[in-house]
Amino acid sequence: MRTIAFHLNCLVKGGAERVVSNLANKFAQEGYKVYVATEWYDENEFVLDERVTRVHVGLRKEDENKSRITKFFLRIKYLRQFMKEYHPDLLIAFAQRANYRALTAQKGTDVPVVISIRTNPTGHYDAISDKIQIKWLFPKAAGCVFQTTGQKEFFRPYLQDNSTIIINPINPKFFDVPYPKEREKAVVHHARIVDFKNQPMLIRAFIKVHKKHPDWVLRIYGDDSHDGTLEILKSLISENNAEDYIFLMGDSETLEKEIVKGRVYAFTSDWEGLPNSLLEAMALGMPIVSTDCPCGGPRTVMEDGVSGLLIPIKDEDALVDGLNKLIEDPELCERLGREASKIRERANADAVFEQWKDYIELVLKRCGRN
């Protein structure tokens, strides 16, 4: 029986955590022995299959008052102890600090480590300390899973020949959602309300769109990140007397049913890894205007003019033009939405799992774990 382990901070609901929980559950269902080694437990976490064993590898109660440096080395020590005790055939790390910890803890074990890049490397992997660790640690990785080509190019030459690109699986509830009989004249958007999603640009752009199309509305779904962005959005709406046509809807448990009520979808991030909200809108067959944000997430899954419209980041005028184009051309909307929905073939849970499984088996074979 193959034994694999995943390592990340916790399983609180988020993009990387959802991917890990889905993969861990699926591998367990396929007969693998699966461990999930986390730094801590949190509230509102994803649920693991009963066949998956979760192991705490983070700091212990007696470590609370120790120095920062001591805590750093203890985290490495505890993860190394896990690797030696449970001895998985492969350890797969998710996200920046987990990647560094896993590759450092690998020393003194014979457990190969695959790392995974889950965000835009620019701004997250380009500090001096990162550059030192990348040069020292990343060549030790048995492999790496990227989400986009932009991520892969950033880490040249340290992670290339032994790496692969696998996009995120889409939550199946976004597949085959019936469209309402009458779709509203609405532009929709769903994402966490946070600065880098640049929802303020969407509101400013739609105010201009509304002047040309006064019978259209904008609905923004998403929960507050408490970074001040929500207050900016409320101020923009108030200052422009837009309360009657721009609505902050908050979060929803039935987003798949709410999004398809609109006719056009807008995605405005300044940067991303591979955005789940964009994949979900594509799976729903929405005609989309999206920023072509680094590190290439939208461009990885969407072809400009074929399955959506790509515009430069922070380009408010281009967003206005794109929204107006879709509002005024129903035939274009139909074609773009139909092509966008084909993402289901690449990003359903089974297809993504098979890509991970094939890659893991390839890495194990290269490492002599036949």
Topology pattern, helix = H, strand = E:
EHEEHEHEHEHEEHEHEHEHEHEHHHH
* Strand content bin: 15-25%
User: Which runs of at least 5 residues are low in confidence (pLDDT < 50)?
Assistant: none
Helix content: 40-55%
Largest beta-sheet details: 7 strands, parallel
Radius of gyration: 22 Å
Overall strand count: 13
Give the CA-CA distance, first to last residue: 11 Å
* General shape: elongated
What does this structure look like?
There is one protein chain. The chain has 370 residues and is α/β, with parallel strands linked by helices. The chain has helices spanning 15-29, 68-86, 96-105, 128-137, 149-154, 199-212, 229-239, 255-259, 276-283, 297-301, 316-328, 330-340, 343-347, 349-366, and strands at 3-8, 33-38, 52-56, 90-94, 113-116, 143-146, 163-165, 186-190, 217-221, 246-250, 264-267, 288-291, 309-311. The strands form two sheets. It has a seven-stranded parallel β-sheet with strand order 3-2-1-4-5-6-7, with helices on both faces. Helix 1 crosses helix 14, helix 2 (68-86) crosses helix 3 and helix 6 crosses helix 11 (316-328). The radius of gyration is 22 Å and the shape is elongated. The termini are close together.
